[in-house]
Amino acid sequence: MSPLHELIMANRRSLRHALGFMVVFVGGLILVAKLLTAAPGWF
Q1: How far is 43 from 39, CA to CA, in rounded Å?
Q2: What stretch of H or E contains 38?
Q3: Separation between Cα atoms, residue 22 and residue 17, nearest integer Å
């Protein structure tokens, strides 16, 4: 396997990790926003 191909594979793997983190992060933000709007009496 050529070094260039290994680099591309590594970048693709890290990109997938970054995308997964973004999805979890955005999902968490939406969940928090829904909790804040649904229960203003808690705060």
Answers
A1: 8
A2: helix 3-38
A3: 9
Asked whether the beta carbons of 43 and 36 are under 8 A apart, the reply is: yes
Tokens of 39: 């229960």
The whole-model pTM stands at 0.57
Up-side HSE of residue 39: CA atoms within 13 Å toward CB? 5
Q: How far apart are CA 1 and CA 7, in angstroms?
A: 10
5-35: pLDDT as tens digits: 998 899 999 999 999 999 999 999 999 999 8
